Amino acid sequence: MKKFAKMSLVAALAVAGTAASAQPLAEAIKNVDVSGTVVYRYDDRDRDDNAADTSLNNYKIGLTAKSKVNDDVTAVTRFLVAGADGGFAANGLNYTNDGDANPSVTLNQVYFSYTGIANTTVNVGKQGLTTPWTVAVDADSNEQNGTGILALTNVGPVTLAGAYFNQHNLDDSGAGTALLNGDENIITVGAMANIGPVALDGWYLDMQDTFDSFTIGAAANFDFDAVKLSLGARHTDLDLDGSSDDNELTKVEAGLKAGIFGANVGYGWTDNDGGLAALDADAKSGFQGWTLDLNGKADADLLKLNVNAQVLPSLNLALNYNILDQDAAEDTKDTELYLQATYKMSKNFGGYIRFGQADLEDEAVDGDDVDRTIGRLQVQYSF
Questions:
Q1: Of 66, 55, 126, nearest to 92 (Cα)?
Q2: Coil, strand or helix: which one is 186?
Q3: Domain 31-382 has CATH 2.60.40.420
Q4: CA 266: distance to chain centroid?
Q5: How far apart are CA 336 and CA 372, in angstroms?
Q6: What percent of the chain has pLDDT over 90?
Q7: Each residue of 183-208: b (16+ CB within 10 Å) or e?
């Protein structure tokens, strides 16, 4: 598939007018590396009050092509068959009342990567926003990108990062879209270090005339032969310009694996003033379950519990239970319980099935909680 994709890309460039190049076709193919994902998802969510029921077919294709220009420069492009925000495509429609649709192909990233300085990479152009507040590339959800310059350099065990963007798509993609227009300048700096089994990072971001934020995180993995332990923690603070309110989100997580059995627990909480800490629900500075999300919710906490078993080399079975408690306006508690079976047919092909129930107290109708039956089937091919 990769060879076919490379051939198709080179052929398309040739048709578009690259005949001026005297480079043999075989050499052009050799210098192009293509990777990507193809995802299909079926989502079904039914409420007992029959309001906002959804049954969706979802598709997303992402293709990244890296072409070596010379020894120091690589041209990178990323094409999406997806929605306007880089999420699922336009044919992710409710099959109960909508027809099928043909999605469009968009150029999501196009930049040059320079590695001519020792231990340093500089990316210039339209690229993914690789920060703890955003998601630069995602196989099955929306993506954030911007136009600017990003530099990474290694100094011993420490990696330093700095970036400036004069344009972005955060007004359409992710959380906090109502705050942004897309033309705000973004400045961010960060440092990452590995000390033994512990990975540390700290970042600062300033969004022009909107907010400034910092986040610090730590993660560690320990292997005790029969038992593997993982630990993680992150704190994020976001201050809106012109407001005295503090948006804070803190989370701690732990995972344990012994033989075929595993367990994970995560707990996160937000400040009384506000809980907006991530510009995408999937970002490192956020915290979410499946249908429950802590980001953007003031005076709230989310507890996530998971137990799982690797019953076959290719099959994992898991039980998940999440509780979201909100106290900002009135004390409400939402819960979700679901089973998940994850199957990996081969290294590059697999998927999962989820089925469960959500009890939504904060969406109560006439004093009665809303019960929601939730289900999902997802299949993913990577190349």
A1: 55
A2: strand
A3: no
A4: 18
A5: 9
A6: 73
A7: ebbbebebbbeeeeeeebbebebbbe
